Amino acid sequence: IIISNISSLIPIKLNGSNFLLWKSLFEPILRAHKLMHYVEVSNVPHSPTDPTYALWYEKDQMLLSWINATLSESALPYIVGVQSSKAAWNILHRHYASSTPSHIMALKQQLHSFKKGSQSMQLYLQQFKTIANQLAACGSPISDDDLVLFVLDGLSPTY
Asked: Can you tell which superkingdom this protein's organism belongs to (predicted)?
C-alpha cells in the first residue's frame, strides 16, 4: 500500500471543530486498504520475533504517519510520542469526540447564544453546521428542525 500524499485524499487538517468531517474522509481510506482493524482492535503480534510482526509494524507505522500528516498544528501535540496508530486514533477520539455532559452542554449553549451580527450568511450557517457536527460526533445529534430554529433565532429582525 503506497499513498504518497495522503493530503490529496484528505484535504483538511484535523482541528477542534472538524473531527466528524476528518473521520468521514479517513475511514473510507482505511476500509479500502483493509486497515480499519489497526485502529479498532488490538491486533499487535505478541512478539517482534513473530513472522507477522514486521508486516504489521510497517503498516501500523504507515497508518500513524497518515494520521500525523492530516493533523493541524493544534492537534499534533495530543499524539506526540504515540507509538501506534490505534493509540493515536483513540487519543484523537477521546479528545475531539468528547461526550462528557459538560462538553455537550457547552456546545448546545453555543447554539442558543450564537448571533449572526455582521458576518456573511454563509459563514453564519457554516458555524452552526460545525457545532451540529461536533454534537453528532459526541453522540448527541441535533435535529434539523431544532437547528433551523437556532439559526432563525440568531438572526436580526431585519431578516
From this structure: Eukaryota
d(CA 114, CA 97): 21
pLDDT of the chain along its 159 residues, tens only? 566 688 889 999 998 778 888 999 999 999 999 999 999 987 777 777 888 888 899 999 999 999 999 999 999 999 999 999 999 999 999 888 766 788 788 889 999 999 999 999 999 999 999 889 888 877 889 999 999 999 999 999 888
Distances (CA, A) of 154 to 51, 73, 116, 133: 60, 32, 6, 18
User: How many Å apart are CA 13 and CA 26, to the nearest integer?
Assistant: 11
Task: Give residue limits of the domains in the chain.
Answer: 7-96, 101-153
H or E element in which residue 138 lies: none
What's the rounded Cα separation, in Å, for the pair 127 and 121? 10
